[in-house]
Amino acid sequence: MSLPVLEISVVLPVRNAERRIVGEVERILEALADLSDRPAELLVMDDASEDSTSELLSELQSRYPQVRASRLSPAQGARVACDLGLDQARGRVVLMQEDHGPLRIEDLRRLYRLAEDQTVVAARAHSTPRRPSGPLLARLQTLGDAHLVRAASGDPPFPGNQSSTLQMIRRDRLRDGGDLPKPGHSQRADADMVLESEWFDLTSAVS
Question: Given this model, what pLDDT does residue 146 score?
Fold first, then answer.
């Protein structure tokens, strides 16, 4: 395994994402710039999209030097796409979206902060959308925003409120060959630390 030369690599598998890919790439690049002033890259793995995703990615590569796009053909699935992206990644910290869905920026921030812990090798953040609890709905009612109350208590969830799972691997903590280190003084060095969160985004209710 070659030595990392960048601080962060993000691996994003996508398929038929023409409606969101430009906004998502720009959103991730903005988050990476906020996280660190060190060099970073975004590897977008196009899993044999049948729409204009590939063409849009070519334009994004020309516009942003941090973006590298690869196309798989035929479709291999998000897991294989992530594996291939990990092979290409040059970052000290590699973050990989587990599926073809949108990446949640807050999970990206949480996992990168966790990577600052020298005892952590790998972690996984899984965020699941949930309806606001009764007390929160009651608070919205108290504030008098009937539109938000109706939106928050309706069914189904807003578009974009999807579960999201992101993995983090610290390549600088791996031995040659990519194996996890042997158990030492800290149990956390070998642990897959799972960060679970539940969330609900009300912003689309007011758009």
Answer: 63
Instruction: List, in order, residues 6 or more apart from 102 with CB less than 8 Å away.
Output: 20, 24, 160, 162, 164
- Give, in order, the Cα–Cα distances in Å from 73 to each of 33, 37, 76, 149: 31, 35, 7, 45
Query: What is the residue type of 90?
Result: R
The residue with tokens 């992101």 is 166
Model-wide pTM > 0.90: no
**Is cis: bond before 156, omega within 30 of 0?**
yes
Identify the architecture of domain 6-131+160-206 in CATH.
Answer: Alpha-Beta Complex (3.90)
Q: Is the per-residue pLDDT at 80 higher than 80?
A: yes
The dihedral through the CA atoms of 94, 125, 61, 65 has a sign that is negative
Residue whose pair of structure tokens reads 């970052």 in the numeric block? 91
Mean pLDDT for 70-81 is 96
| Phi, then psi, of 25 in degrees rounded to 5 | -60, -45
Rounded mean pLDDT, 164-176: 82
Instruction: For Cα atoms 149, 151, 154, give the angle at the middle one, nearest 5 degrees.
Output: 105
Q: Which helix H or strand E contains 12, and what residues bound it?
A: strand 6-14
Mean pLDDT of the chain: 79
Tokens for 118, please give them.
């020298």
* E strand or H helix that includes residue 88: helix 78-88
Domain regions of the chain by residue span? 6-131+160-206
CA angle 129, 14, 204 (to 5 degrees): 35
